[in-house]
Amino acid sequence: MTTETTDRVNGPDAGKASPERTERRERIWTRGFTALFIISLVTNVSQSMMVSLVPVDASAMGATPVMVGVVSGAFAISALAVRPLIGATSLRFRIRSLLIIDLCVLVLAFVLYALASNVETLLAARLVHGIGMGFLAPLTLALVANTLPESRMAAGVGMFSVGQAIALGIGPAVGLAVAAQIGFSWTFAGGAGLMAVAAGLAFILARDRSFVAQPFRFRLRGLLAREALLPAAVIFLLASAFAVVNTFVVLSAHASKIPQPGLFFTVYAGVLLLARPICGRLADKHGIRAVAIPAAVVFGVALVTLSLTTTVAWLLVSAALVALGYGVCQPLLQTLGVLSVRKEDRALAGSTLYTGVDLAYLLAPIAAGAVATSGSTAASGYSEMFLWCAAPVAVAVLVLGISGRRRRQPRRVTSTDG
Question: Which CATH number is correct for 32-207+222-406, 1.10.3720.10, 1.20.1250.20, 1.10.10.60, 3.40.50.1370?
Fold first, then answer.
């Protein structure tokens, strides 16, 4: 946490604030936060449908497992390409305006999904999708962080990510069910409609009246927030494993003849609904690493369990463990990143954090597809693939543990602080 943030939370007059004023200052569910929560929910319902639909659609078009990994991870190429623009554009234009434009780009991406009739067109749609994703996550994370009091940042970011959990629980299962009834094209068209609704909702967000536009200057120093590099590196390691789970869990279940694989995402989302708010409050009280390290260990156990899964019961147990692992770690590491920079640099910090995610989604599915192809059977190939994914998670646990000793964490703000 910066000195400015510490002074703002624990200034000389902090202890003199009335209980009503303190409660009002530390509220999470403000008008801005609520609007962003709804936008995130609507947006992520559409996006989470891609988790299950794109790999299955690509496979139905004749793509090999490696090509499925290429298509699934292709959005990371264009997302990474636009990342260098986020720092400069967020200082030149209001983040609210950038969000509205970005949501319109995502509408276009889903229209292209609906029109795709071959792997090449599907790949093009993923690239456009990546342009929108490149901006969307950092912009919304910065806007959410700006609405939250620093003393409740971990709880607030965790609560905000609950909307993503709901969407992930609804999207993949609904997407598979709807596609089975009306086909992929009309399902993607429905996703475009939801994205359009999100763009309309963005207009109700309050404008930042204190914003002062700065000249657009593209500088190498502005590509990444150095203070956020450590959590970004840990997110890369964890997201590499999670990207593989997202891409191949349905195909793996099909190979093992496990019915209703969409339930994996439903259970994952249900556990997140309970775990993220609780773990966010624990992190605000005891420190981010104190919660993130055990969660990362649980994620490693989840991957081992997933590699051994042959029944729907164990598939759902794996889903719960993934939620308690990666699902808990992600918002905590995001909080660590945004608290490490000044308020005006939070969009850049968000970009740095999501660069780690983009790299993971670009590289991990392709490498994992190669491992899956090397198996003697499809089922054994996927099993070996999930087991290998535990390796980067183990490295992430070590990095978090070592950095926790060498680096001083952002100051924890307890309920006794002003």
Answer: 1.20.1250.20
